[in-house]
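dumping this here before i forget
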Amino acid sequence: MCFTTKVFKVLMTVMFVLSLHHALASDLQITNTMFDGNPRDERNPTLTTWITVSWKNAWRNEKNYDAAWIFFKLNAKQEAWSKVHGFVKKTGHTFIHNYQNNGINPSFFVPEDGMGIMIFPDRKHRGDVSWRIKVELDMSKITGISDDLMYVSTQGIEMVYIQQASFYAGEADTSAQRHAAAFYEYGSNDYYKVNAESAITVGTLKGNLYYENSNEPNYKGDMKGPVPAAFPKGYDAFYIMKYELTEGIYCSFLNAIGNYYSHPRANFGGKNYNKERGSIYLEDGKYKTKSINRPASFLSWDDDCAFADWSGLRPMTELEYEKACRGPMKPAVANSFPWGNASNEKLSRYFNDAGDLVLEQPYSEGDLSDSNLEIFGASYYWVMDLNKSLWERCVSLGNEKGRLYQGTHGDGKLMGYKGTATNEDWPNWYDGKGGISYRGGGYYLWNMVGSPRGETGHRPYGAWGDGPQDIAYGFRAVRSAR
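structure:
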């Protein structure tokens, strides 16, 4: 969805007004955005933004909360080039007004790199939120902006907080271990418990993490290790996108990266794109979509990583995927889905005939609770669609390139002629060295039932290194909570 920006220059002050930001599946909206300051003042360069952040069905409970990841982009000197990332100061942000008048105020978390600001309810809550806040941008970190007027956009993605905790990976079911390369603890054939972020030994000694690859290392993993301490294992707290990357968010990305990078990153050039549910198109020089909340398919792994880099996030690992599904609880039944049981008969979130992911009437996400996770296709932490939507692409621990991943976050900019991610530790598709994992099952046809079922601990494609554009492959990014 495109943005209409009005820019005013008054004396030595520049004020920026941004129109309504795109709405996501939870109707996350960023409205009434204003920027004010003098970025060129050598003695005191300033740029302050006021924004209204609103979304439906927010929560904070004993387990966790949802949040909005807010970040900023400033135009470079020429529109043909990507917008410059607007870094955020560590402190100095102010809550101004609560439009819901419900006594629930926002809490702020700014990571050390200042790539954005996480906003979430400050106390126990369930319901809509709408806050007016002030955010200070860190001009000491922002380079490459125009000497004249700047155009500034505000971006937002809804996230879910995953608390620091031990968790259980893999399966205790021996059939899943043999045929689906599920992790298990060697010597006990039980779930493998992840107790820390320290290195994990892989092998045939009692207590090690192990899995079987059925002589298919290119699909299931090389059974080697160790998994280094720097590889994110899901024990430490992190934020994960509540929904898969949508077409609306991807359009915002395409419109922000400039003319040159948009050529390789645009994903709708194939003959079957529109036939198989894709709806992104180009009109008057802007990328748009007919379905802003539709999970975005036909993205390559390199497209996914470019988006994660641009947004200050990072790819998740397959261990983080299992943690986001299960939480700290040992599975009560074998071969369970993210909602905790081994059934999907009550699942009421599905792709309709138009290709959109919808809920059966009369349900809304405001009805989600710990007692009806299966109906909504939600995980222990209320992350949506980790199964029965698109395949979740992760970083694999079953491949040397994947094990080199250190969990670095995107820096907001891309590189080369193709606009690829700048992070050297991230696996990529173009070098052919693998490091990619597919988890959770994927959508291929409407009303499709059966294999791949996508149970949480199953990983028959846990180390399949290809990352092509396809109808069934999705993505969601994460952010370490530090």
